[in-house]
Amino acid sequence: MDSPNLFNPHPSRDNLNFFQADSGRCYSVIPHCYAQAAYLTAAFSVENSFALAVGNPGVSLPDALREPSRPRAAKPPRPAPEHRADPETAERRHREIRLLCDSRDGLTGLYNRSSFIDQLDAAVDRRRHRRNHQFGVLLLDLDRFKIINDSLGHQVGDRLLATVGRRLQECIPPWNVVARLGGDEFAILFDPMQHPTQIGRFAEVIQRHLQQPILLGDHEIFTTASIGIALGDASYEGGKDILRDADTALYRAKIKGKGSHVVFNPAMHRQVWERLHLESDLRRAIQRQELRLHYQPIVSPTTRQILGCEALVRWQHPRLGLVSPTQFIPIAEETGLIRPIGEWVLREACTAVRKWQLMLPQGQPPFVSVNLSSHQLTQPEFTETVAAILQETGCPPSALKLELTESTIAEYAEMVIPKMKELGRRGIQLCIDDFGTGYSSLSRLYDFPIHTLKIDRSFVEGIGGSGEKLKIARAIVNLAHTLGMEAIAEGVETPEQLGVLQAWDCQLCQGYLFSQPVGEIEIEQLLLRGTIHLSPAQTLREWKRFADEIDHLAHRAGMERNGKNENGCGRGIHIA
What we know:
- This protein is an alpha/beta fold.
- The chain has four domains: 13-102, no CATH class; 113-266, Alpha-Beta Plaits; 291-534, TIM Barrel (Alpha-Beta Barrel); 539-576, no CATH class.
- It contains 22 helices and 16 strands.
- The strands form three sheets. Strands 8, 9, 10, 11, 12, 13, 14, 15 and 16 form a nine-stranded mixed β-sheet that branches. The chain has a five-stranded mixed β-sheet with strand order 2-3-1-6-7, with helices on both faces.
- β9 and β10 (321-323) form a beta hairpin.
- It is elongated and about 100 Å long.
């Protein structure tokens, strides 16, 4: 009997499924590797071949792979060929088995990086010799895997990777090649393809398949993946080239957002090159003291008194000038630099509060709001880090307000809520930022240790009209009042918006109407002044006109609901 091809890239799915079910035992090579090793007719018996394949002479062949017992009388054993004792043949067979095992990923049984690149090289070569041959590469990276791995443990992380590997095999045609390149990065070679759009449809199928919940012991895990796609063409010289372009597309998919897929185009090379330079510079920004904190006042809408500030990080790049946070914060989160940057921001903000406390007359010092990333909150030692910074700087815990988004609470509830409660017990105030744009569970909102709801600027902008955003902004203010929380409206830019927020009894406001974010010296001058003075152009007539319009709209809406005005919107507006 001829031995099968040891390097067949498309093993039987039946063999794969059969050996996965074998008594739950886990081996360090792909399951069908046992079956292929068992066919070898060399100086080794079937069991010795298996022991050699798994690299452990003490491991016995699973019962399912043992040769079926035969009646000796019916068919006597075949005499061993003379060449079995040939040491050269034995060594060659030994190398073949080792090479087979070395081509596989030990955790998932999929192809590893080196063997996958060999498959890519072959596909590139086919494309070079056959003009109409089409193929594509899909590179996949699990979103949030590091957080899952760090919080639930590496054993759960490994089981998740193995499950993802199986799911990828289940949702693509069996002749395509699936590999784990390392960490949480997987790759698929679609070869051949009928049309370039076909791989995009496969990416959508894979996304839907991976979004199904994964149950690992007591943990139900939901995951998505960012996917980069590169299509094969005659310009590629080898597999590494197309894999590089798929990686570039993956980079863009991560920027686009979780669960996205992007197809490579040549213009991405320059964008990625610039981003890599920016990342390299960002790593040295803290040591070079290039980061700055700007502060935007948070004021009372009735008295214009400055009650606090929001700390906003800025990067003064030596060559590019002031770099927007929207450019470098995503890079910091992706690379893990958000941890040292976030700690620096927290320490600087607390130091500023202590300085204000000594600088201003006796009384309650203004608070400072600091934005938190999910990467910070999910770190096990985060609460201890905050406590240490407060003690080091002398900042009162009541003067620190930490802002986190709805999405962070909902997505990482199991890890974040205990930390939120611990921070609350330490006297630190917590604020939900951009409230109304995420997916908070209102039924659980009362259970969260939240002190403040911050109304997203998109709803504040809607106050200038009479549409749905106006109603949402009013509803958020009412919700905060009902739950005994503060409401802060951000993005206030017109006296009309301020007038309506006053009428709704919104406790705090911030926006360009009062001040843009300013540096350390400017904020100290504003704090010493104590209140914000609006410009003469913001006249009393404009305020009254818009307040009357809102009162009319609220009266009409109330009449439509129950035949009488129950809102009282527009009454009691304080004109200063």
